[in-house]
Design brief:
The protein has 264 residues and is mainly α. The chain contains 15 helices and no strands. α6 packs antiparallel against α7, α11 packs parallel to α13 and α14 packs across α15. The longest helix is centred in the middle third of the chain and has 17 residues.
Amino acid sequence: MEKIAKELQVLPFEHANVPLSDEVKAVDEKLKLNPDNADLWMERGLALAKQLLFRESVEAFSNAIALNPFCGIYYRHRAHRNLSCWRIEDARADFSIASRLIPDNWAVWYHLALCHFLLKDFKKAEIAYRRCYELSTTLELKVAVSDWYWITLQRLGKPEEAQKLLDAMKPAFDNPDFDPGADLVYYQRLKMYAGIITPEELMDIRDHSESLVHKLTISFGLANYLRVQGQEQQAEEIFSWMRKAGEEEYYAFAYIAAMMDQKN
């Protein structure tokens, strides 16, 4: 039997050696008095995630689950941070459990669909995005899910169904005062899919953005759109740029998606 390197199978005992935030320290003081309080462990996990301590965050959520294994929101948050750690199968498992325990949670279905997408299980991604879309009661909520859903349907060779998503966004497109809030980048991608702005215009928006996460998010939409248009070489050039430029934001969904896209 071929020997497998331990480093490929076992996480090190050592954790990130950085000072904990005041928020984490405050939760730790509460946990000293009440170590079996599952909600406090969730609170600790959320605080750790703000410091980008995702592995430590996962461990905190696991402690919460050990204390209350039938609370869906704990699985939802652990799944999100497993995703940040690129443990996509683990994330999908947790989101699947959460979808049974809290079936009306929009974020659960959105991220479960993303996990299916990253693992190239596009049929299951379609089902999960459809459920997330059904839970989107406003145009604002429809923005992000419509984007990923559109890409998924294109991957499945269903352009007519993908077009229906853009048609449903027409009231937003026609309203100059529509505010997509935090999902502005996804909204800009949707406008490109709909032909309202050109890929060149979206590229210009990307180049003038000061946020690397926004640059990566825009780039992923551009690359997928170019692929749909049959411009595979141009799409791969963008994916290649993302893989090089995105290392500092290794937890960004678009960067993870670009990395997973090159896997067979």
